[in-house]
Design a protein that fits this description.
The complex is a heterodimer.
Chain A lengths: L2 H13 L1 H25 L4 H10 L7 H11 L5 H13 L13 H34 L4 H16 L2 H15 L11 H31 L2 H8 L4 H13 L1 H25 L4 H10 L3 H29 L6
Helix pairs in contact in A: 2-5, 2-14, 3-4, 6-9, 6-12, 6-14, 7-9, 8-9, 8-12, 9-11, 9-12, 10-11, 12-13, 12-14, 13-14
Chain B lengths: L6 H5 L40 H18 L1 H4 L31 H36 L2 H15 L3 H12 L3 H28 L2 H8 L4 H14 L2 H21 L11 H8 L8 H30 L2
Helix pairs in contact in B: 2-4, 2-12, 4-5, 4-7, 4-10, 5-7, 6-7, 7-9, 7-10, 8-9, 10-11, 10-12, 11-12
The chains are: A mainly alpha, B mainly alpha.
Chain lengths: 322, 314
């Protein structure tokens, strides 16, 4: 390919970005709207819910009691006005105020965000490592190996996370004592929770990769690489994997969102701090601004990661630029 | 994460790809069955092995169905019978699955909880697929505006991971068995909507629908007689899978204390109750979890096999 054609293909690629950004904004707007509607749909009078939460007792409230709360949270405004001020707040980075703790939702999330992000990213990396090793070693082998390998993948992908977490905890922490049971912030404490998220994810990504990997193994370029005297592992890692990496890569944006939501369960199993714990206690208290704040944040993450994944996929497989 | 049915839409080899004359189903036109000979020059099919996986899956599901309909046959005792002399006993010959903190036999409780657990799974799967088909049909079979709105709705809902969408619903409605069914159903719907949309689009642009259009059949007749039957047939398999997935999601919510409340022997409730005794009596969580995983695996295996059969006519 000459450099002019190369340039033209990049220009075409860049030309698609305004459309992509618009689609991403649209998804974000929709997610925010769903979050707002969920707050409106909460059964009962919201001011009464807030008062009951703060005082810890459920009772009938008089209009005189409710009025200051309604004014504070702007519930007395018409719904559309509330919607606009909610949107405006989000644009300024204001996720609202917790019903229960009476502080900005963003502060509550920010305190716990680091722990969850570390867990999710570690899990995603571990999942890729496990999946690449597993698929590279087993794809395109004898029928028996292949069917065993894909059964393992299906099983790994359908194992409930809480179950896997409890099992790992019981075996590696309680029986063998290799890692601390609970607490601690070091890498050792991160290993089991991350593995709990990574194993089902690896099974899930593995199914997508395997199909593509086996298609790519049958392509002419594999034969030509072998004819040139390249070893089997070299062919698999340098040529086939590059083709097979695109489907799991495009799923990774979705997968990162899934690990963050899986963190809700894993943090509960391993008693780790993080936004999952904040989310569960907010749901128990029906503290909706906190719930929707976390959900909007995760939707934003999903949208951003997907944009990054699109760019990365075009780098790996130049045909996607065309 | 536990959403394997997503994959085939993205990576399955393009049988019945747009414009191709090879339809995705064995019975493209009613009455013209088994006309599809393997393509000349295609690699010879490996010898058929007996389908062990689907058989084992069917047998497993039959046992679960029996437990749901007639729990007394499999476990004659009462699930509420206390035995304070034998609390937190590890699994043994007398108590196959061990006992809980009140000495209740876990095996009996698991068997008697099957009915409610399956009911929740069935309900959630029904909610999920109904929503998915409605969204997918609006996206694939309507005019530009409605189709665009439906497309965006699917994309927006898909931006929420399943568990979070379910949690959002529970936060709004408050925890109860009904909101559990709704939450899991709505949470899993966007993924299935994408699959169904893919199937509808594949069928809509297929050769035999083009042929029917060329023959001058009306839009309604084409949708009713050609598109819907062919695109929706694989749903039987997807429905089977989604029952298993729904039970896993419902039990995950229960593990967080947001499902059916503990005195019930429903599987999620067993997990929630057993969580307190995790270090002293791990089997109270491990065994119900294993039962759930087994059901999910059987449902996924059988569902995939049904779906492949209906799609490729194998």
């Amino acid at each position: 390919m000459t450099w002019t054609r190369h340039l033209a293909s990049w220009a075409r690629h860049l030309g698609r970005w305004p459309g992509r950004l618009a689609a991403a904004l649209l998804v974000m707007w929709g997610a925010v709207t769903v979050a707002f509607l969920a707050q409106l749909a909460q059964p009962g009078d919201r001011a009464a819910v807030i008062l009951n939460l703060r005082t810890g007792q459920t009772q009938e409230r008089t209009p005189a009691e409710l009025a200051p709360v309604n004014a504070e949270y702007g519930f007395d405004a018409p719904p559309f006005e509330q919607y606009l001020s909610y949107l405006g707040g989000l644009l300024r980075g204001d996720l609202g105020v917790s019903y229960q703790q009476h502080r900005p939702v963003w502060d509550m999330i920010a305190e716990q965000l680091g722990a969850t992000v570390a867990l999710s990213l570690t899990a995603l990396v571990l999942a890729w490592v496990l999946m690449v090793a597993w698929v590279t070693l087993t794809a395109g082998r004898s029928p028996r190996v292949r069917s065993l390998a894909s059964t393992v993948e299906v099983f790994a992908a359908s194992v409930p996370q809480y179950w896997l977490g409890v099992l790992l905890l019981l075996v590696f922490a309680l029986e063998l004592g290799w890692v601390p049971v609970v607490g601690g912030n070091g890498p050792a404490a991160l290993l089991l929770p991350a593995l709990t998220l990574a194993i089902p994810l690896a099974g899930f990504l593995g199914q997508a990769t395997r199909a593509e990997f086996e298609l790519a193994l049958a392509r002419p370029f594999v034969l030509s690489a072998r004819v040139r005297g390249m070893g089997d592992l070299g062919v698999r890692l340098r040529h086939v994997l590059r083709h097979a990496a695109v489907p799991p890569l495009t799923l990774s944006g979705w997968a990162l969102g899934a690990t963050v939501s899986g963190a809700v369960i894993v943090e509960s199993v391993f008693n780790r701090p993080g936004i999952g714990r904040v989310l569960v206690s907010a749901i128990e208290a029906q503290d909706l601004p906190v719930v929707t704040g976390i959900i909007v944040l995760i939707a934003a993450l999903y949208v951003l990661v997907n944009l990054a994944v699109d760019a990365l996929a075009a780098l790996i497989d130049p045909r996607l630029k065309a | 994460m536990t959403t394997p049915p997503l994959i085939p839409t993205r990576t399955a080899p393009p049988t019945g790809a747009p414009g191709s004359l090879v339809p995705p189903s064995s019975t493209p036109v009613p009455g013209a069955e088994a006309t599809l000979a393997p393509q000349a020059g295609a690699p010879r099919r490996p010898r058929r092995r007996p389908p062990l996986g689907p058989l084992a899956a069917t047998a497993t599901l039959a046992v679960f169905a029996l437990a749901a309909v007639a729990p007394g046959l499999l476990a004659p005792g009462s699930p509420e019978a206390l035995d304070l002399g034998a609390t937190l006993q590890a699994p043994s010959a007398a108590h196959w699955f061990g006992t809980d903190e009140l000495g209740r036999d876990l095996y009996t409780r698991v068997v008697h909880g099957t009915g409610l657990s399956l009911l929740i799974g069935l309900g959630a799967a029904a909610v999920s697929l109904t929503l998915a088909v409605l969204l997918a049909a609006a996206s694939a079979l309507t005019g530009r505006i409605l189709s665009g709105v439906a497309d965006r709705t699917i994309e927006i809902l898909f931006a929420f991971p399943t568990l979070l969408l379910a949690l959002l619903l529970i936060a709004t409605l408050g925890p109860s068995p009904l909101s559990l069914v709704l939450a899991v159903g709505v949470g899993t719907a966007p993924g299935y909507a994408r699959i169904v949309r893919g199937q509808l689009l594949t069928v809509r642009t297929s050769g035999y629908v083009e042929a029917a259009t060329a023959l001058g059949h009306g839009r309604r007749r084409i949708i009713g007689r050609h598109i819907l039957p062919n695109a929706l047939r694989p749903l039987v398999g997807i429905f089977t899978m989604s029952i298993g997935q729904s039970i896993v999601w419902a039990s995950s919510l229960a593990f967080l204390g947001l499902g059916v409340a503990p005195p019930s022997p429903e599987w999620g409730a067993l997990l929630d109750a057993g969580r307190t005794y995790l270090t002293a009596a791990g089997w109270l969580v491990i065994i119900p979890g294993l039962v759930i995983a087994l059901l999910a695996l059987a449902a996924t295996t059988l569902g995939t096999s049904i779906r492949n059969r209906l799609e490729t006519g194998d």
